[in-house]
């Protein structure tokens, strides 16, 4: 671990020396090479004309980019030394990636990408980028803030209900020809009257609290910043400054914070043990916030009554990942933020930022993750 940190630090110092050569935005709009990495649509690519988030449809911006003389390379092949991304990153000016099929932009990749100026995330969450290395190299990192917050908040609410009501075993019975009410009812509960806590109360966390309020739950939240009192009263949520004081009170815990060095592995065996026995956990934030084996073990013992989410570490998750097989899980591939509505919003946001980039204009302030060598507050 120490050797890896030393290597990363050395790479960042090397990048820092070269950072002056890379401007905040394009010095010339002509002839830029843009590389996009998206998940493959395959047989589903043409079933919906608005399915713009797949590699085949490439955010719907190919014609626009090429008509202006730019080169647009799109691939889903992102891993390993011989992948398509490696072939093109060396002379790319812009790299567009997504959290749903993340291309891990390491310090080593940044060092090889001598022309790179801009890293855009089509969606929300840029932790697949080595942000300190990007800052040291003088790169701009931005994402389409707010593009899929509704999508994720709705998905979280769905997973809370699916797990509390023990829906999945009943659904499997319907498909298999079985009929055993007791097998479902013995661990099915109402949401009303439960205490739900969100760890993180940014855009998604607040939308979730708004949607939970009509269910007559006790709502708690922990965040580095307290919500404005008027908004707090409107949400009906109580601020908990001490995370470990909040967790034992909660029947349901939802994670809504970014992955940083401070939050990586935050929910380890010891913290999970301090949570209420029978807790429901929903994690649509990032898989690496959790100790994967500790979660699987706690599900096996029943300390965690149900765990659901769509984020894993790494992604795509290997076939032997323990979360695939643990009891009472409601796991899916990373899908919550890539609804068709979400895709249309983040595709439009990427196009808007590219237009601004070609003109040398600033992006909306909230979209910046790294600007002029500085990381956004949530990643510090």
Largest β-sheet summary: 7 strands, mixed
Q: Helix tally?
A: 14
Number of strands: 14
Strands side by side in the biggest sheet: 2-1-3-4-5-13-14
Estimate what percentage of residues fall within beta strands: 15-25%
Mean pLDDT: 93
Helix content: 25-40%
Function: Catalyzes the NAD(+)-dependent oxidation of formate to carbon dioxide. Involved in the cell stress response.
Main location: mitochondrion
Binding site for NAD(+): 149, 203-204, 223, 258-262, 284, 310, 334-337
Subcellular location: Mitochondrion
Task: Outline the structure in words.
It is an enzyme of class 1 (oxidoreductase). The chain has helices at 2-18, 62-67, 84-89, 107-112, 131-136, 149-164, 167-176, 181-185, 203-212, 229-235, 243-246, 269-273, 292-301, 340-359; strands spanning 33-37, 71-75, 94-97, 118-121, 140-143, 195-199, 218-222, 237-239, 252-255, 279-283, 304-309, 329-331, 368-371, 374-375. With 380 residues, the chain is an alpha/beta fold. It has a seven-stranded mixed β-sheet with strand order 2-1-3-4-5-13-14. β6 (195-199), α9 and β7 form a beta-alpha-beta unit. α6 crosses α9. Mean pLDDT is 93; it is low at 1-21.
């Amino acid at each position: 671990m120490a050797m890896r940190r030393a290597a990363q630090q050395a790479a960042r110092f090397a990048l820092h020396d070269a950072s002056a050569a890379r401007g905040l935005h394009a010095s010339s709009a002509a002839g830029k090479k843009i590389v996009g990495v998206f998940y493959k649509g395959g047989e589903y690519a043409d079933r919906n004309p608005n399915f713009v988030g797949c590699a085949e449809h490439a955010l719907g911006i190919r014609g626009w980019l090429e008509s202006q003389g730019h080169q647009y390379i799109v691939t889903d092949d992102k891993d390993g030394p011989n992948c398509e991304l490696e072939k093109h990153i060396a002379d790319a000016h812009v790299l567009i990636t997504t959290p749903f099929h993340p291309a891990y932009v390491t310090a080593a990749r940044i060092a090889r990408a001598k022309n790179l100026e801009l890293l855009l995330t089509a969606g929300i969450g840029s932790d697949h980028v080595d942000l300190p290395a990007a800052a040291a190299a003088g790169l701009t990192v931005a994402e389409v803030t707010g593009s899929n917050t509704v999508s994720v908040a709705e998905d979280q609410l769905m997973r809370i209900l699916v797990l509390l009501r023990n829906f999945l075993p009943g659904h499997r019975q319907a498909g298999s020809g079985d009929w055993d009410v007791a097998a479902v009812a013995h661990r099915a509960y109402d949401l009303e009257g439960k205490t739900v806590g969100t760890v993180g109360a940014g855009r998604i966390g607040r939308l979730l609290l708004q949607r939970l309020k009509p269910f007559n739950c006790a709502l708690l939240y922990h965040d580095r910043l307290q919500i404005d009192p008027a908004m707090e009263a409107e949400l009906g949520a109580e601020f908990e400054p001490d995370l470990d004081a909040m967790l034992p009170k909660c029947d349901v815990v939802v994670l809504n914070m970014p992955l940083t060095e401070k939050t990586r592995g935050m929910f380890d065996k010891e913290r999970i043990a301090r949570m209420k026995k029978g807790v429901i956990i929903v994690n649509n934030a990032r898989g690496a916030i959790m100790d994967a084996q500790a979660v699987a073990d706690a599900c096996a013992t029943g300390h965690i009554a149900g765990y659901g989410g769509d984020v894993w570490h790494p992604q795509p998750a290997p076939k032997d990942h323990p979360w695939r097989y643990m009891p009472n899980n409601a796991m899916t591939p990373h899908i919550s933020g890539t609804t068709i509505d979400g895709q249309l919003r983040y595709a439009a946001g990427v196009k808007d930022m590219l237009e601004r980039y070609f003109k040398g204009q600033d992006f909306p302030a909230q979209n910046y993750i790294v600007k002029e060598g500085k990381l956004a507050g949530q990643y510090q």
